[in-house]
Structures are given as structure tokens and as C-alpha cells.
Specification:
This protein has a six-stranded mixed β-barrel with strand order 3-5-4-8-7-6. The chain has two domains: about 120 residues, Ribosomal Protein L25, Chain P (Beta Barrel), CATH 2.40.240; about 90 residues, Ribosomal protein L25, C-terminal domain (RNA Polymerase Alpha Subunit, Chain A, domain 2, Beta Complex), CATH 2.170.120.20. The chain is built from four helices and 15 strands. The protein is about 15% helix and about 40% strand. The radius of gyration is 27 Å and the shape is elongated. The N terminus is likely disordered. By secondary structure, it is mainly beta.
């Protein structure tokens, strides 16, 4: 069944909405603008026991070069009062068994975080300054106000002590290759991010690759990268990371020289 329009006799039109038998009638929640995230409840904020961390089949985790400072929420604080004062309530799970820590973050910090990160695949360095506690966490949940669409509540999950995880690390190419400096080549980077697996405690901020000794025509493959201890690469070992190609200007010069010689 579908929807129909009908005349009201005064030049105006109305719309009849007909629901099929198998479709439930709209609830107050279903009529709210989407995407809709319900307000936090004690059960909805708990991490799911069956998926505390992404598995190898889950989306890759990206490391953010960002440290978020926050404070523990006072026991008598009211969430709405915090929001009015420009702070967003949040919770940290996984740091110590089933315990959780109620924290509060500056609303501007949350805004920047949400511009750069996403739920369940962004690793963030969280620093609770007044406990003190500091560690790498996953942004697990972002709840927004159903009408204002502003951040309402955040949940973080501490990853330390929960096994190895897959992350994507930035590659930094260090030095000037011989093939560029003396042989007229150009540095051609095929990839700038490397997928690796390691424990949360061993996640490197970045990986430096020294290209100083590379000559024209040389290529460096994934399995030739020197990785920190406890870190292993994911993907094809023979994939090219960087190569030294002959520049177009150099190629044209050589072609002209060859033509003149003949």
C-alpha cells in the first residue's frame, strides 16, 4: 500500500499516509530526525561483552596524533549543568575490569575530536589529569541530542591489556636519495600509511624510512621496512612502498642527447 493525496475543497491539498500491515506504527523515537541516538541509559553505555575491541575483520583503527585532557566528574555533578557550562559528560570503560570512570570534556575539544575521528576505528590518547590516568582509548560511542544534533555523551574504551590490534601507521621518508640528488630521479611514494598489528602498548606514532641510499630505479618493498620490536606488517610483503623514477625532464634530455649522437 502507499500514500495518496486528496483535495480539501478549498484549494488546499492533504496527504494520507497508509501503513502496511507488516509495518509497525510510528513511535515517538521513529518520528525524530535521523540519525537518532537515544539518550544514555546505564545499560546502553556499557561496552558489549562480545566485541570489546575490533577483530581482524573489523574496520582498521586509525591513530590520531591527539591527546585529550579531561577531568573526573564530581559525584554530585548534573549532566545538564555540565553541558550548560560548556562541558560534555563521558565515560571511560575497560581500564580496570568492569569499572568505569565518569569524566567531562571541554565542548570545543569534543568538536575537534569528532571532526577528525570516528566511532570504533580511532585510537586516541586520553589523559585524565586529576586521577591521574593516561592511556590509549577507542572512541566507542557518540550520542547526540535528538533535536539540536549536538554531542550529548561520549564513551571511550581503554585498549591496554586487551590483546593485539590492527592499526594504520604513517610512514615518514627520511633523507635525500642519491637517485634524486645526483642521478636526476624523483621520489615516488606508492603508500604513505602501513597496516601493522601489535599490542596497544607498542603502537608506534609513525615509522621512519631512510631513503638516502636509494638509486635511480631502486624500489623498497613492505618486507624490507625495519619495524619496531613487537610490530608486524599486514598485507602483501612484495608491495612497493617507494621507488626512484627517472624524471620527465631527465628522460627528455637523454632522448635529445641520443638523437644528436646519431
Amino acid at each position: 500500500m502507499g500514500n495518496g493525496e486528496w483535495g480539501m475543497g478549498n484549494g488546499e491539498w492533504g496527504r494520507i499516509i497508509v501503513f502496511s500491515p507488516i509495518s509497525p506504527l510510528p513511535t515517538p523515537h521513529s518520528l525524530l530526525p535521523t540519525p537518532y541516538s537515544p539518550l544514555p541509559t546505564p545499560h546502553s553505555l556499557l561496552p558489549t561483552p562480545y566485541s570489546p575491541l575490533p577483530t581482524p575483520h573489523s574496520p582498521l583503527i586509525y591513530i590520531m596524533d591527539l591527546t585529550i585532557e579531561c577531568q573526573k566528574r564530581p559525584d554530585n555533578s548534573k549532566p545538564n549543568a555540565l553541558r550548560r557550562s560548556g562541558r560534555i559528560p563521558a565515560n571511560l570503560y575497560g581500564h580496570k575490569g568492569t569499572e568505569s570512570i565518569a569524566i567531562a570534556l571541554d565542548a570545543k575539544v569534543v568538536e575537534q575530536l569528532l571532526k577528525r575521528g570516528s566511532v570504533n576505528n580511532t585510537l586516541i590518547d586520553l589523559n585524565i589529569t586529576d586521577m591521574p590516568w593516561r592511556g590509549k582509548t577507542l572512541l566507542r560511542e557518540v550520542q547526540t541530542h535528538p533535536a539540536k544534533r549536538t554531542p550529548y555523551h561520549l564513551s571511550f574504551f581503554a585498549v591496554a591489556g586487551h590483546g593485539d590490534t590492527d592499526v594504520e601507521v604513517t610512514l615518514h621518508f627520511v633523507g635525500e636519495p642519491v637517485g634524486v640528488k645526483l642521478e636526476g630521479g624523483v621520489l615516488d611514494t606508492q603508500i604513505t600509511q602501513l597496516q601493522v598489528r601489535c599490542s596497544p602498548e607498542n603502537i608506534p606514532d609513525s615509522i621512519n624510512i631512510d631513503v638516502s641510499d636509494m638509486h635511480l630505479g631502486d624500489s623498497l618493498h613492505i618486507d624490507q621496512i625495519v619495524l619496531p620490536e613487537g610490530v608486524v606488517f599486514q598485507g602483501e610483503p612484495g608491495q612497493v612502498v617507494v621507488t626512484i623514477l627517472q624524471s620527465r625532464g631527465s628522460s627528455d634530455t637523454q632522448t635529445e642527447s641520443g638523437s644528436e649522437a646519431t
